[in-house]
Amino acid sequence: MPRFRRALAPLLLAALGAPLHLRAQPWAPGQGPPPGLSLPTKAEAQQLEQLRLNGEAQGLRERYLREAHTLLHRFWSSTQQPKLLLPGDRAEGCGVQRIAHPMAYYCPPSQELAMALNLRKSVRSARGKTDRELLLLDLAVLAHEWGHHVNREQGRGPFKGGMGLTVKQEELAADWRTGVFLGWMLNAGALSVDDFTQTANLMFEMGDYERLAQQHHGYPKDRFAALTRGLTSQLQVGQHLGEWRIDTAETFSRPLQRTAEDRQLERRRYEVRRFEIDRSQQIATNLIGGLLGAASCVWGNQQQCLGMASQQGKGRADGTYTQRRLTLHCASRSFDVSDDDFDPQPVDRDGKGQAAVLLERDCPKPGGVS
Fold first, then answer.
1. CB atoms within 10 A of CB 29
2. Measured distance CA(199)–CA(188) in Å, rounded
3. Averaged confidence pLDDT in the chain
4. DSSP designation for 243
5. What is the DSSP code (8-state) at residue 255?
6. Number of domains the chain is built from
7. pLDDT tens track for 267-326
8. Per the domain annotation, does 325 fall within a domain?
9. Which burial class, exposed, middle or buried, applies to 287 when counting CB atoms under 10 A from its CB (0-12, 13-18, 19+)?
10. Is residue 127 one of the residues assigned to a domain?
């Protein structure tokens, strides 16, 4: 089996070969799905989720990936459906003969999409999880590789870049398309907030290396921002997702039952999910490569088909959706988040903007009734 490495992209100009008429028209966040799509029904999305939750364990991953592959084809209204290759399958393009870990890529010349990334070997936090628990991360990997296919067919959306196209723009565009698809799944009720946030945590861990090079794919925060931009194109601030509500692009909340003490103290309490980046535990070497790092043969060079990259580069931060309790003090217009290093602060000190949204939405206006 060949030794796969991240492409250096010396053929960058050749990668600009997508016809001009396929370059995407502007599509701003919050405006719904891209124009021209004929979306699958919510029932189709929910059927995929039921397969994940209740499907027979034997052969579940293969069945799930094939169903998801078909759903992504429907979702993007793609004129062509790449051939899905799984571990052990023979490949025809990009210099690959047989699919095996750590391959996860899209090969344009042969219209092949490979899914053979062993997540437990690639993602520290995935170790010990069951196949069923990792299916949503598999879905995100598949959606990312589909993003490369759709980028070439329909354009790169907010990351089109023109003659200044870089590997980073291509990868961010694929991340954005991943977010669009996952946002639609959330909107369809086929993905819960907890499932999404737990999967997003693993995806951040799969982010690109913190290093600068011609083939740099974007820092993990860049990748997460692109994912979120896609996600919020399908959702609205204030929207209910089951018991949860979207407060900002990176925060969710659900109210806790108010007690007599809460009313007396004019406070409201919430369970919240807040995306936070922790730089205190950065290490000297990178932990992994992978999807939101890189598996794409998008440049079409048969000698540079991508899989996992070797460990290299600088240290990286940890990014996670934290699980906290937020207490909002309406009278003093302050808030406090559990398990952080801060005492209660004015709501305008919340860097996430969540406290201000909750204050405006749930606290009475001056002179009102609590």
1. 18
2. 17
3. 79
4. T
5. E
6. 1
7. 999 999 999 876 554 433 333 333 443 444 544 444 444 433 333 334 455 678 999 999
8. no
9. middle
10. yes
Map residue 194 onto helix, strand or coil: helix
pTM score, whole prediction: 0.81
Ramachandran sector of residue 290 (left: φ over 0; alpha: ψ -120 to 50; beta: rest): left
Q: Is the dihedral of CA 75, 77, 78, 83 positive or negative?
A: positive
Domain membership of residue 274 (yes or no) is: no
Helix (H) or strand (E) holding 190: none
* Greatest C-alpha distance within the chain: 72
pLDDT in the model for residue 283: 39
Domain that holds residue 306: 14-237+288-313
Helix runs in 97-216, H state only: 119-122, 135-154, 167-187, 193-205
Which pLDDT does position 215 carry in this prediction? Answer: 52
Distances in Å between the Cα of 172 and the Cα atoms of 12, 38, 133, 211, 343 are 16, 24, 26, 16, 37
Distance (Å, whole) CA 37 – CA 184: 12
DSSP state of 341: S
Six-digit token pair at 217? 């794919």
> For helices 193-205 and 135-154, what crossing angle results, to 10°?
70
Please indicate, yes or no, if residue 244 is contained in any of the structural domains.
Answer: no
Instruction: Name residues whose C-beta falls within 8 Å of residue 358's C-beta, 6 or more positions apart in sequence.
Output: 247, 253, 268, 270, 326, 328, 335
Structure tokens at 347: 């709501």
Please state, in angstroms and as integers, the Cα–Cα distance from residue 296 to each residue in 132, 141, 180, following that order: 25, 11, 19
Q: 83-114: buried (b, 16+ CB within 10 Å) or exposed (e) per residue?
A: bbbebeeebebbebeebbebbbbbbbebebbb
Between CA 243 and CA 253 the distance in angstroms is 8
